[in-house]
């Protein structure tokens, strides 16, 4: 069941106006979980290139060579015999989220959590972890589809070769998240409506650079920050190792986006760049909205709308986690010249939502080598070849 087109279009208007409009946020609801497929129509050109000279774009060629030596096998390189203590994982994660205590207090004051004790809070944490990993898995499938698309649409030979390696990487990511969910966690969630709307926005757009911006820079930029955060917080050895492997790949993917778009944007007019700025901002808001966890509140039997309202009112001092999710996106947008293009529209928007302070953090075009440990470990003999 695809998203209802009327609701979906209204929601795009919301992204240009009041980003905190609760009616609009609530108008996108979770899909029918019984559906096995969903269809997104689009119309794009598949491009052959007859110029086979490898290394015309040295930075992309370097990424491609790196990708070939950084392959890993999700079945063999991860220790699936590890028993996962989900309750322990949930306790570790809850310590690090001071905003949760504020939300809890507000929800209790509003009478939304009648009869809730430690058991319900623990269950909420377990559901949240099931939900989080499910959304990662769905996002990975989005990346799989988008990079298959880029392989077809990007005009540059070096980029087609790299994109093909990314398709394999994303297949592996879907595989390991799905296996972790199925064998180590206790439940599954369908794709969040805001994440689905974002993936649909990206896939519907026929311009190859928009696939890059939406997926490589925005979705994967946020994923890289979110994986890094979870990797830092959890001591669960299987998840920690899984995330470290996935991040090594993701860093190359974001770098691929930044390095390619840098060249693509150089020839663009400010009207064209304005469209990219708006697309980036809308994607950012959709990703913020997905973290409202509507489906989890619903499954826990809590009034979803009221929980969404409370979360949107979270005071600034508790927003560090939400903001850190933008810590890769903002410097990468800056590197691409998107912050200050035109009259600095995107700088203004990132300032309004409180994330502009990341503009001078490392951009992924520069830092991906540090995150890519797989090739280094293999050379050192720490990994089976
Ligand atoms: Fe991925
Ligand atoms: Fe990726």
Explain what you see.
It is globular, with a radius of gyration of 21 Å. It is built from 18 helices and no strands. The protein has helices at residues 5-16, 22-27, 58-69, 86-95, 98-109, 118-153, 157-184, 193-204, 208-233, 237-266, 270-290, 294-299, 304-312, 320-324, 329-335, 345-352, 364-371, 373-379. By secondary structure, the chain is an all-alpha fold. Helix content is 66%, strand content 0%. It has one domain: Ferritin, core subunit, four-helix bundle (Ferritin). It binds fe (ii) ion (2 copies). One fe (ii) ion is lined by residues 140, 143, 170, 173, 250.
Task: Write a compact overview of the structure shown.
With 385 residues, the chain is mostly helical.
Chart the SSEs and their pairings:
Blueprint (H helix, E strand, L loop, with lengths): L4 H12 L5 H6 L30 H12 L16 H10 L2 H12 L8 H36 L3 H28 L8 H12 L3 H26 L3 H30 L3 H21 L3 H6 L4 H9 L7 H5 L4 H7 L9 H8 L11 H8 L1 H7 L6
Helix pairs in contact: 3-7, 3-10, 4-6, 6-7, 6-8, 6-9, 7-10, 8-9, 8-11, 9-10, 9-11, 10-17, 11-16
The protein binds fe (ii) ion (2 copies).
């Amino acid at each position: 069941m695809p998203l209802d087109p009327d609701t979906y279009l209204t929601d795009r208007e919301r992204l240009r106006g009041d980003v905190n409009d609760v009616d609009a946020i609530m108008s996108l609801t979770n899909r029918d979980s019984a559906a096995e497929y969903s269809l997104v129509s689009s119309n794009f050109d598949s491009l052959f290139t007859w110029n086979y000279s490898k290394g015309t774009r040295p930075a992309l060629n370097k990424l491609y060579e790196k990708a070939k030596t950084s392959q890993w096998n999700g079945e063999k390189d991860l220790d699936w015999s590890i028993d996962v203590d989900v309750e322990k994982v949930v306790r570790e994660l809850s310590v690090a989220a001071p905003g949760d205590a504020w939300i809890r207090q507000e929800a209790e004051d509003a009478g939304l959590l009648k009869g809730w004790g430690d058991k319900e809070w623990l269950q909420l944490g377990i559901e949240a972890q099931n939900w989080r990993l499910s959304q990662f898995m769905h996002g990975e499938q989005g990346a799989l589809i988008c990079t298959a698309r880029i392989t077809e649409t990007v005009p540059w030979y070096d980029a087609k070769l790299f994109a093909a390696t990314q398709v394999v990487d994303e297949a592996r990511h879907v595989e390991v998240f799905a296996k972790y969910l199925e064998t180590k966690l206790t439940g599954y969630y369908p794709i969040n409506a805001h994440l689905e709307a974002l993936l649909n926005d990206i896939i519907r757009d026929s311009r190859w650079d928009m696939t890059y911006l939406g997926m490589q820079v925005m979705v994967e930029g946020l994923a890289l920050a979110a994986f890094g955060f979870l990797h830092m917080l959890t001591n669960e050895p299987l998840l920690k190792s899984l995330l470290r492997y996935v991040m090594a790949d993701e860093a190359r993917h974001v770098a691929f986006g930044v390095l390619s778009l840098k060249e693509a944007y150089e020839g663009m007019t400010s009207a064209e760049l304005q469209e990219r700025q708006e697309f980036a901002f809308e994607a950012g808001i959709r990703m913020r909205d997905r973290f409202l966890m509507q489906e989890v509140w619903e499954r826990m039997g809590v009034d979803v709308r009221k929980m969404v309202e409370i979360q949107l009112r979270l005071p600034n001092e508790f927003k560090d986690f939400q903001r850190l999710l933008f810590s890769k996106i903002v410097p990468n947008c800056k590197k691409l010249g998107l912050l200050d293009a035109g009259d600095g529209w995107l700088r203004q928007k990132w300032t309004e939502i409180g994330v502009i302070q990341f503009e001078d953090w490392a951009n992924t075009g520069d830092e991906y080598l540090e995150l890519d440990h797989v090739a280094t470990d293999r050379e050192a003999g720490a990994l089976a070849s």
